[in-house]
Queue: 2 jobs
Job 1
Amino acid sequence: TRRVRARELTLAKERGEKWPMLTSYDQYTAALFDQAGIPVLLVGDSAANNVYGHETTLPVTVDELMPLVRAVVRATKRALVVADMPFGSYEEGPTQALRTAVRFMKEGGAHAVKLEGGRTVAPQIEALTNAGIPVMAHVGFTPQREHTLGGYRVQGRGDQGDEVLADAVAVAEAGAIAVVLEMVPSDVAKKVTTEIAVPTIGIGAGPDTDAQVLVWQDMAGLRTGHMPRFVKRYADLAGALTDATKAFAEEVRSGAFPTGDHSF
Ligand code: KIV
Ligand code: NA
């Protein structure tokens, strides 16, 4: 087996083959998703929420993401592992972006990086691409900008659809290997998907993008409580883990565990 390359994702688009992407932040899920045939794994800055327990993605740092990237890379053989550049690690310009991205490639062993933004971050994408670092872009709703976007809201409704399209075209022209489209109307996502040559990866962007991504804890039902509309739960890991935990606790209290079988 060898690693998936960005070029294969574009060839899949040309053949009309859709592909799945998931987040991963640890060795067990990374190995499992890799063996299940997920071609691209994202060590998202959503680790802020899903690993570190923050309310938003803003607080997580490069130093906090780095060991997670290393774990996911070590645990996979085939998946292309993308390191998400956190808030504050690339906005100053191409020089800062390059410094951060080089760390993720060198120390983290990542195969690509991702950053949020459209036309305004095109210079960063171009600089990284020129340096040999594949970059995934992320337009539409960009969680790192939630304070200026007015919270979790669909982007690109009505006339604003052209803004999303202009952002996607700009990042593709700057060299992005793929573009995440988050919370945009389906018709806008469809238009973007036909207008750019590289794959679009939807999350809350309807059925017509080239790929789909979800946060794994949402997909597998480990996270409970209010869920965005774009999430589909394919399992109830929270329920399964709660049941296992209660059974263990109960057996310890009753003395049913351990028995001679578990003892030396
Ligand atoms: O950090 C993340 O999980 C993401 C994906 C949802 C695209 O950016
Ligand atoms: Na992210």
Job 2
Amino acid sequence: MDIISPAHLAEHNQSRISALEDDYDHLGRQLARRGIDIAAATTRATRFRVALPSWGTSTGGTRFGRFPGPGEPRTIFDKIDDCAVVQQLVRVTPDISLHIPWDRIDRPADLRACVAARGLQVTTMNSNTFEDQPGQPHSYKFGSLSHTDPAVRQQAVAHNIECIGIGRELGARAHSVWIADGGNFPGQQHFRRALDRYLDSLRAIYAAAPADWRLYIEHKLFEPAFYSTVLNDWGTSYYCAREVGERVFSLVDLGHHAPTTNIEMVVARLIQLGKLGGFHFNDSKYGDDDLDAGSIAPFQLFLVFNELVAAEVEGVAGFELDCMLDQSHNVTDPIESLVSSTIEVHRADTQAFLVDRAALAGYQDRNDPMMALGVLKQAFTTDVAPILAMARHRLGGAIDPLGAWRASGHRQHLSEERR
Ligand code: PSV
Ligand code: MN
């Protein structure tokens, strides 16, 4: 079921298709000189997927305040509608990641039908044991899955199992766990015991998950705990994933690292160790800033995708990924941020596909750093916008998604409808 009028999109594309064909043909000739078939790159681009976070459809906020925009979603059904708009424009975001209890789901069957009617699917569930909910018996102030009190741990485990139960009704196939557990002061927490308690809780969640589900664990360096976190880095995440089970994987949130961390190398290590499960894409300048993917460090995003594409073309066995956006839109229209971030992630993947792998391997073997970097830079500096636009167009989306969205006047309509 379409939300933006297909006639509007068709008209919008009609006035842009001839310029796009021009640019596409030109790029095709350039790439052909490099031995790259643009048709193959475009077909691959039509198969790209990145999941939308239900929570990304609303304005986020900081601890200093929140400034909601007009026409914000009121219910989970509104959020699905907004995801459907993004999908209509970009056509590579049919998957949705839900967050419980931010998403209040009273009628899972109705929600599943609504999601399907919009041509979407719920793929991943996310739990929330980082806030207390009204009427909750035990507080998460001092932790959840790793809390010193077994009653708190049980409550947090039960919440995760409940999320999985809701997800089963919605047709999801993965559950993602991020804990805010940690300490604000030296001495507050016994590091090893806290990790052991976390592992026990994770085992209980894993045991309750359907056999074909994947469980993702998300490490984070700091925040809201400012001195230490229980699942602080990729190494600890890898260890926990390996300890708990075959279908437990590490999820890399780009914002959850120190500013100078070599994230692409973290990605390569997790691939090599068989435990990379997926991503939360976003960008940051200082910490977990939750800025739009590709807005600050596009080269880093490209280098992450370079590792993913390398693993793909080298045929790394059992390599399967859940890519999702996870951002906080504080000053932009959330739909615009989701659209633009999708394009950036799509761009990085497409550029990474253009890397001349044979040439790169040769320069690596001959220890020629300048030329090796040159191979990466050649791919990174290629303007792949015509490939992305052509892929969207072929899939029925917009050649210029933001332009089509602005011209649709849909935000104005939502601001009246959701007043
Ligand atoms: C925490 O910073 C996080 O990255 C986790 O994925 C949460 O589920 C999400 O943000 C929303 O707060
Ligand atoms: Mn995240």
